[in-house]
Amino acid sequence: MPALLQGKVAVVTGVSGGGQIGHATAKALAASGALLAICARTQSNVEARAAELRQAGARVLAVAASLSDETQVRQLIDATLREYSRIDILVNLAGGLTRYKPAVEHSLEDWTSELNNNLLSTFLASRAVFPHLQAAGGGAIVNFARAGLPQANMVAYNCAKAGIEALTRTFALEGKDSGIRVNAVAPGLVDTASNIAAMKPQDLKRWAKREDIAETVAFLASPAAAGITGQVIAVTGWGL
Fold first, then answer.
1. 54 phi, psi to nearest 5 deg
2. Residue 146, in any domain of the structure
3. Given a cut of 70, is residue 193 above it in pLDDT?
4. pLDDT for res 156
5. What angle do CA 193, 5, 64 make, to 5 degrees?
6. Neighbours of 43 (CB within 10 A)
7. Sheet strands side by side (includes 9-13)
8. Distance (Å) of CA 36 to CA 4, 66, 102, 165
9. How far apart are the C-alpha atoms of 35 and 5, rounded to whole Å?
10. Position 124 in a domain
11. CATH code of the domain covering residue 38
């Protein structure tokens, strides 16, 4: 998708480890011409990803922030505006599954942590960037849900991702008159480095490739998806 995002400014959260969806997404957006602001909790991780992206020719601002903290979300947006003077795209990738246990064993801290890392972070970042997309005359937000039915031992994560679908559709309704498109990508099993290390699959053919996820994000962020908003797009590879 060459140059469809030329000169657009994209904020991408959750760009931490190598071999993960965040890194692949940032690469895909840069290849389409976007200027990047990437974010992760740990300074060393986000700087490492920024260095890799710069080696490939991307212009990148690296910001360490915890996106369940309202003040740090504001700092990310302010830093991006200082660097580029505008924001056109937000990709809400921060989060992930960290609590895996039966529902009755979830503590209040487990529940709160999982919802904060996934749903609250998506809400805070979307709310913070919305006025700037309006000022730019429109833009795109891409969130991350999950494909398939809820699974056992993941009650807080399941609820957080269901909430992200509702959040996506609500922001899409509220952004339609301003030209702001809001969609979500819902991956199945993805060939990230962490998934492969944890699950040790014998055959990856049925898994979605992280590059396919990244290209879907780049498409949804681009003018090619001008008629798409309020949608949740499943990307499951061949593991239907």
1. -65, -35
2. yes
3. no
4. 95
5. 50
6. 12
7. 60-64, 35-40, 9-13, 89-91, 139-144, 180-187, 232-235
8. 14, 18, 39, 25
9. 9
10. yes
11. 3.40.50.720
Using the CB atoms, write b or e for 141-163: b if 16+ within 10 Å.
bbbbbbbeeeeeebbbbbbbbeb
In a domain, 240, yes or no: no
Q: Which helix (H) or strand (E) holds 67?
A: none
- The domain in which residue 171 lies consists of 9-235
pLDDT in tens, 51-70: 999 999 999 999 999 999 99
Catalytic amino acids? 157
Length of the chain, please? 240
* Nearest-10 Cα torsion for 194, 199, 200, 206: -90
> Are 111 and 156 within 8 A, CB to CB?
yes
End-to-end Cα separation, the chain, in angstroms? 26
Query: 99 CB contacts (<8 Å, ≥6 apart)?
Result: 106, 110, 113, 114, 154, 156, 157
Q: Report the number of distinct structural domains present in the chain.
A: 1
Overall pTM surpassing 0.85 (yes/no): yes
In a domain, 101, yes or no: yes
**Residue 183 CA neighbour count, 13 Å, CB half:** 23
Cα gap 22→51, rounded to integer Å: 14
Inter-residue contact 38 to 106 (CB < 8 Å):
no
- Residue 217 CA to residue 91 CA, distance in Å, equals 8
Write down the residue that tokens 């309006």 correspond to: 134
